[in-house]
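Bug report (template v2)

What were you trying to do?
Predict the complex of my protein with inosine 5'-triphosphate.

What happened?
Run completed; filing so the output is reviewed.

Input:
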Amino acid sequence: MKHKVLLVTSNDHKLKEFQAMMDESMFELISLKDVGYTEEIIEDQLTYHDQAVKKVAALIELHPELIIIADDSGIEIEAFEYGPGIYSARFKPEMTQHERNQWICEQCFQTKQSHAAFVCAIACYIKDQPIFVTVNRCFGYIANEPSHDFGFGYDPIFAPEGYQETFQMLPSSIKNRISHRALAIQALMHYLKGVL
Ligand code: ITT
């Protein structure tokens, strides 16, 4: 029998990546839409860890029998003293994602401070277990210019260590093997297979 896993996210790109990386033979991934949850979960925590736990905790009382997971992620960039980090979803809100990406590239190029890391925390609730959390980083650098004006968030400007191409240009099979989220999902799978 497959275990139902509720993913607490309103980000369709994240949902797609989880769908591609979770072991389908063991788990059936369901989304907030599937359980009809539409409330906004305020992002006011100071760490990826605590924010991921907060997202999971918002759903526990409603669905105590489900496995519940959430992702809190962001990008850390040398030119911004390793911000915006936990504020990545709300960084420079007056700009479109494309303008923001272009501007970040310019700042990194001008200051020659282009080291960066993508970060992903995943929290997981299973009834009668302590909440599991893993926080993983994928290191790399900011490209001199965005690879395209579309894609998932900061993917058009981040190239992982050892690659010339950005995550947006690389095949998803590579991103899904080496990314911050891939590393966190690998740790999650290890935990789930051990505890179930
Ligand atoms: P949920 O909270 O509903 O899951 P969100 O988009 O608000 O969705 P976060 O608060 O975790 O998610 O914000 C993380 C932001 O960092 C996200 O909106 C993207 O802009 C960026 N981000 C995280 N992972 C990324 C990835 O793999 N590729 C590109 N951008 C990413």
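What did the reviewer find?
The first strand starts at residue 3 and ends at 8. The CA atoms of residues 143 and 164 lie 9 Å apart.
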